[in-house]
Amino acid sequence: MPSHEQEMRELLCELAGSLFARGFSVGSAGNISVRLTDGYLMTPTNSSLGRLDPGRLSKLDPAFQHVAGDKPSKEVFMHRAFYQARDDASAVVHLHSTQATAVSCLPDVDQSNPIPPLTPYFVMRVGRRMPIIPYYRPGDATMEPAINAAARNARAVLLANHGPVVSGQTLTDAVHAAEELEEAAKLFLLLRGHSPRLLTMPQVDDLLTTFG
To answer: What fold is seen in the domain 3-211?
Structure first.
């Protein structure tokens, strides 16, 4: 096995375990994938992010066909939507983290961008916008075109009444962005009903120009 692939297997399990230990996922909720030179690694179906085995991760070929390891998550299409929409996506993290999922359940927020620019770190790691995708049953592959279309202009999306899907230029970047999204959602919910000071558009532009 190539050393890079083995490194990614071990890192994926380490980061997934950290997310699970801190309550970003429960039970068998959530899934993570990372791009390789010859395909993708993905968490197996019905697996717990807290108890992954590097040697049993699902391996997919460049066409997203299962070629080795345990059977992949039923939400392969969700990850494929990001990888095909974004050349800069090298990893995708889908969680059911509490605060972000709570925001995805709110009908009275801006569905095109529900969390405003409250902190520079949210902008730096998640980006300028993060739309809410209308509700689909979990595992329903017909949501793929909607995710793909949104991902062309967003690094992350919220699935209505379901949870966040976040991409990153590296696996670590994607996990950090998912963590930052959860904190931003928490701040947003704490500040509802108030009039917080938001970052201005010039400030947002400066962050994106400086940090990418």
So the answer is: L-fuculose-1-phosphate Aldolase (3.40.225)
